[in-house]
From TrEMBL:
SMART domains according to UniProt: THUMP
InterPro entries: DNA_methylase_N6_adenine_CS (IPR002052), RlmKL-like_Mtase (IPR000241), RlmKL-like_Mtase_CS (IPR053943), RlmL_1st (IPR054170), SAM-dependent_MTases_sf (IPR029063), THUMP_dom (IPR004114)
Domain spans labelled THUMP: 43-154
Taxonomic source organism: Allocoleopsis franciscana PCC 7113
Name by which UniProt lists this protein: Putative N6-adenine-specific DNA methylase
C-alpha cells in the first residue's frame, strides 16, 4: 500500500474524500486543500482516470523534519533517485509552502533539484536536464512549518484540464468545481438538469459525463505516471478498456444548457463534440426572461456573474431579481442552486434559501444557494 495525497480546491475536501472512498481508496483523511489516502498502483491509475474533483495525485516518497536549506538538501540525497530517474531523463521540481528559512519556493525547488543532480553526477558522471514543460519526472516538495513532504506528481497537467475544452468563455468554471457542484446539489442522472446561464457549457458537460459514466481522464493525451520506470502498460490498457466498456449509451433524463449569446453557445457545442456527446446534451439559445421548464421537476444549477468590477453589482441587481422571478413562476417542482460570490446580489433573488453551502470559486469565497420551488 502506498501513501497518496490528492490536491483539491479549497472547500472541496469532504466532497473529494467521499469520491475517493467510492473509487476504493483506504485510510481517507481530508486535510487543507487536499485528501490523504492509501492504495495500490491500480487505485493510483484509477483515481487519475476517474476522479472528477481532484487537481493532482501525489505519491508520497518521504516526510521529514526540515528547518533549513542544508537539512532539505541532505534529506533529499538520502533517497536513491536511481530507481525513479536516470541521467537521460528530464525532471522538474514544483515547490509549495514554506517556513522562516525556506520562504521562497523557487529557492526550495532549486535545493531539491541540486540534491538530485549532485547524486547523479557522483554515481554516473552526468545529470538530468530540467524540463519545466513536459518532464519525465515531476517532483513536488511541500514545506509546512518545520516539516517537508516530498512526493512524485503522478498526474502532470492538472486533472481539471480534461482535454475536451479547447473553447472557453470569459469566466469559465473549472471542471473540477462543476463536478463538485453536481455532488453538492445531490443531482442524480435520472433527474432533468438545466443550466440557464451555461456559457461554454462546463456544468451541462460535466453532468453528461457523469450521467453517461464517462471517465474524465479518457480525454487527456497523457498522465505523468506513464513515463515512470515502473509504469505498468498492461494494467493501464486494461483500465482504459474497462472505462470505455462501462460507458452508458443514452441519458436517462434531459441535460440542457441555455444562454442568450450565440457565440458562446458555439463554444459549448465544440466542447460537446470534443466529449463525443454532442448528440446527447442539448444547448439552446434562450434569454433568461424567455426560458421555460423542460420537465415537471429537475435540478437547476447556474453560476451568474458576481459583479466584481465597480458598478457591475448595481446593474446585476435586476438580473438576479429576474432569476428569482423565473424560478418562482415557471419552475414549480424544481430545485435550483445559484453559485454567487456577492451576498448583496444574492438577496435580490427574492427567494428564501433552503440551504447555504460555502464554496470557493478559485480565490473568491462564494455560497451555493439552494432554493426549493413548491
Amino acid at each position: 500500500m502506498s501513501q497518496y495525497f490528492a490536491t483539491v480546491a479549497r472547500g472541496l475536501e469532504s466532497i473529494t474524500a467521499q469520491e475517493l472512498e467510492r473509487l476504493g481508496a483506504k485510510e481517507v483523511r481530508p486535510d487543507f486543500t487536499g485528501v490523504h489516502f492509501s492504495g495500490d498502483r491500480t487505485l493510483l491509475y484509477q483515481v487519475n482516470l476517474w476522479a472528477r474533483t481532484v487537481f493532482r495525485v501525489l505519491v508520497t516518497l518521504r516526510e521529514f523534519p526540515c528547518s533549513n536549506a542544508a537539512r532539505l538538501y541532505t534529506e533529499v540525497q538520502k533517497i536513491n533517485w536511481q530507481q525513479y530517474i536516470q541521467p537521460h531523463n528530464t525532471l522538474a521540481v514544483n515547490a509549495t509552502g514554506g517556513n522562516r528559512q525556506l520562504n521562497h519556493t523557487h529557492f526550495t525547488a532549486l535545493q531539491v533539484k541540486n540534491a538530485i543532480i549532485d547524486q547523479q553526477r557522483h554515481q554516473f558522471g552526468q545529470r538530468s536536464s530540467v524540463d519545466t514543460e513536459n518532464p519525465d519526472l515531476l517532483i513536488n516538495v511541500h514545506i509546512y512549518q518545520d516539516r517537508c513532504i516530498l512526493s512524485l506528481d503522478s498526474s502532470g497537467a492538472s486533472l481539471h484540464r480534461r482535454g475536451y475544452r479547447p473553447a472557453m468563455g470569459l469566466a469559465p468554471l473549472k471542471e473540477t468545481l462543476a463536478a463538485a457542484l453536481l455532488d453538492m446539489a445531490e443531482w442524480e442522472p435520472n433527474l432533468p438538469f438545466l443550466d440557464p446561464l451555461c456559457g461554454s457549457g462546463t456544468l451541462p458537460l460535466e453532468a453528461s459525463l457523469k450521467a453517461l459514466n464517462i471517465a474524465p481522464g479518457l480525454f487527456r493525451p497523457e498522465f505523468a505516471f506513464e513515463k515512470w520506470h515502473d509504469f505498468d502498460e498492461q494494467l493501464w490498457t486494461r483500465l482504459l478498456d474497462e472505462a470505455e466498456e462501462s460507458q452508458i449509451p443514452q441519458l436517462k433524463a434531459p441535460i440542457i444548457g441555455s444562454d442568450k449569446d450565440p457565440d458562446i453557445l458555439d463554444q459549448a457545442r465544440i466542447n460537446a463534440r470534443q466529449c463525443r456527446i454532442s448528440d446527447q446534451v442539448k444547448f439552446t439559445q434562450t434569454d433568461l426572461k424567455d426560458i421555460e421548464a423542460p420537465a415537471d421537476s429537475g435540478v437547476i444549477i447556474c453560476n451568474p456573474p458576481y459583479g466584481e468590477r465597480l458598478g457591475d453589482a448595481a446593474e446585476l441587481g435586476d438580473f438576479y431579481k429576474l432569476l428569482g422571478d423565473v424560478f418562482k413562476q415557471r419552475f414549480k417542482g424544481w430545485t435550483a442552486f445559484v453559485l454567487t460570490g456577492n451576498k448583496e446580489l444574492a438577496k435580490r433573488v427574492g427567494l428564501k434559501a433552503a440551504r447555504r453551502i460555502p464554496v470557493y470559486n478559485g480565490s473568491i469565497p462564494c455560497t451555493l444557494l439552494k432554493y426549493e420551488m413548491y
